[in-house]
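> Could you send the Kelch domain-containing protein 3 prediction when you get a chance?

Sure thing. Input:
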Amino acid sequence: MGKEVVKFVYVLCLSFFPPIHQRIKYGRSVRLLLSTSTLTPHPYQRASVPGCRYGHTVCQYKGKLYMYGGRNDEDGSFSDVDCYDTALNVWVKLHTSGNGPSSRDGHACSLLDNEMIVHGGFASKAIKFSGDMYAFNMDHHTWRKFPKRGERVPERDFHSATVVGDKVVVFGGRSDVFAPFFTANDIYPHEVFYYNLEISQWFKAPKKGPYRPDGRRSLVSVAVGDSVLYFGGYNATKKTHYGDLFMLNTITWECMEMRAFGDAPPPRRRVGCARIGTDVMICGGTSPKTVEKDGKRLDVLFDHSDMFILHLIPTLEQLCIIALIKAHAQLYLLPFHLQQRIADLLCQPVKTKTRLTAKPEIPVKPETPAKPETPVKPETPAKPETPET
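Output:
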């Protein structure tokens, strides 16, 4: 499915942009420079592609991608479900039934067996935040609404709701002092809530662990075993973009900051994220940037086009290389092919196909200091000749 995700992203980009160069960085491995001109998806009918939007969600199931909601400035928010078949390379607008959500954007989405879980979001027509949770059955195309019992969860948008076992874990997002109503008095909840799917009830998770992340919106999360891995986000009240990586254990509720080896992405929000096996792919996003215009320094937002891959379980080779680097080993003593491999893992060279386009920065063998010259023994002065008598 990983190749299909890349193909799906390319199809969407091709609808609006010409082929571009895309850089892929591996958090613990290698950085490559790829050209999207090498990707050749099958022809598709442009009319079948859904309208442009943001604040939507996409969930994959049985080789298909299900997209719900989102908005654009011309049409407002959407409530439809569109399905992209990765095998046939075609979009289909689904006819749904049941008790479904109203049109919205900024909602959170996660996969539960054959259902797409949708929580929260912002209903632009009602100008209100939502705290409701729904499930869309991708086999029968039907909606159902979860009962709202237990702890009150502040309504919010652009948060994360991650299915872990029998829980839906909610963190982050933007809310309002007078939520569910929108009054432009933003607050960023830092508490963690979870919905127990077995008893259909909300709970507030206890705060444990050495790391207490700030509340933020537009973050990403993925389930890893019994834990949730979080990255990035933005807090408007603190005017801060985040680039921290932290893990929340949903059994002990301990939160720990993770420090991955390698070339980490800079702080950003609005990131695309997916987990494929033991790899987490992080794509794009938005970061602040200071530019000068007419002699003035302006703070603007910069859109990224890069991709990072975080290896959750490094290979034995990677662990050995990390140990060598931390030990400040003399890498120049290794065979050249191993030096090249280490340079690849350090994200130093840039490769296109099989040609090396940038020389790896391998430690140069220090020159052996010249042996000091042996001082020349001064010549013994000649013995004066004895005058003849």
